[in-house]
Amino acid sequence: VQLVESGGGHVQAGGSLRLSCAASGIIFKFTNMAWYRQAPGKQRELLGAIATEGTTFYTDSMKGRLTISRDNAKNMVYLQMNSLKSEDTAVYYCAAVSGAGDVVDYWGQGTQVTVPS
After folding, report:
1. Alpha-helix runs per DSSP H in the chain
2. Alpha-carbon distance 16 to 109, whole Å?
3. Residue 35: which of 44, 25, 27 has the closest Cα?
4. Mean pLDDT by 10 residues, the chain (117 residues)
5. Nearest C-alpha neighbor of 34 from the set 65, 63, 56, 9
6. Which residues lie closer than 8 Å to 50 by C-beta, 6 or more apart?
7. Pick from 48, 6, 51, 56: nearest CA to 29
């Protein structure tokens, strides 16, 4: 199983960024997916999840500023982030999950997002 994130980088405060995650080695259309992040010195936290048919769930971490979507034909999941703040600086991970995102079966390697203060 491989989950490969891309799209991270430096973005100014107030800006937007879209992260992508390419999945292989799993039956993607039958797999729930999630996005997490880990800021320096903090625990990894769940941002939200998307079920196989596209139903989404978001935690309060970035609620209202992010959208998770998927393309089952391309085995891709996306994280659109808006109105970015310096506190959003973190490594962002996609994950193949069971349930609502709290049980992770596979992790990606992560992609760094930096929002300078």
Report:
1. none
2. 22
3. 44
4. 97 98 95 96 96 94 94 98 97 91 92 96
5. 56
6. 32, 33, 34, 56, 57, 68, 69, 70, 77
7. 51
